[in-house]
# Entry
Amino acid sequence: MLRLPLTADTIAPIARGHPWVYADGVRERAPAGTPVQLIDERGRVVGFGLADEGAIAVRVLGRHAEDVGRLVGVRIAAAAACRPGLLPLDTDAFRVVNGEGDGLPGLVIDRYGPIAIVRLYTRSWEPYLDEILDAAAQIPGVSSVARRKGVAIVDGSREPDVETLRGPAIPEVLVVREAGLRFLVRPHVGQKTGLFLDQREHRRFAASLARGRTMANLFGYTGGFSVHAAAAGADRVLTVDIAGPALEDAKENFRLNGLDPARHGFLAADVFTWSPEGPLDFIICDPPNLSHDKSADAGARNAYRDLAERCGKNVRPGGLLASSSCTARLSMERWELAIREGLRKTGRWSWLWRAGEPPDHPTALEHPEGRYLKFAVLRRHL
# Structure
């Protein structure tokens, strides 16, 4: 097996369990997907993984070399086996494998009812695609396995493209269950198929606060937060998103759960310029990723600050604001500072609850880069 020497300052993080070797951490490179042993200046093995290209030179799989095909099968099976105990009852849409958090860096598998959807975030896994697909097909309850493309560094394009590779062809539309509620998903199109699995626990928590309140769900997409809130007894929920087709799916999600869309509201509008007709009891603000590279970081932070101020002004005293960020480049601390700065001009507030990734999205202990999701609920003082 090819042995790659590490630079002196890279050895300790890898020995502790960090799953990435950056490009400046190795003295030579290997083609993506090549199994490699990582060695220190004395030739001692400190890690084992798959060579990658670009900013990450190696995806680390462990300390000692193993057969990669066997390792894939064992780790996918182990990840799948632990998921049922992490999920609410009557839920069949969840993440089965979350990359580094399940010992398979750069590999994601999501489950939508009987369908498993594989996504590769590195070319390192392409030589082992058959093993990945076979292992996914062995997950109890899975009848079809598809690969979803659209990762530019792997596929050359950000456009989604889904191909069924094991079992019957997956449908254009199916209905899944989340904590007893039903949701429409479109595996072939849209952002995350229309249901953001990582916000499931946050949807449930927000719903627990929704009874009797007038609400707005901003960047609402297909209405995940809205359906949970309406089902929990919210007086009225306005779902705001710039994408008209997504709002039509949101209405259908209401109908799937016996909720009358006519009792609520759906508005195609730009959240960055929209304001409600009057103050609300509860606003949920869950924007998309606002920074994909370092040059956009400052703009993203300012956008979260400005959104917090805009939302805060429209929450009545005693009301609630739920704010979220999936921008991995912005730490929890910097995001919280942006929220604080935005709300200072709108009254006095308290943090009620703060959270990150749900249990089916584990993050490796020595991989802080994997902690991308931020969610908080705040209360405006009377």
The chain has three domains: 2-62, 68-170, 196-380. The two ends are 66 Å apart (CA to CA). The longest strand covers residues 315-325.
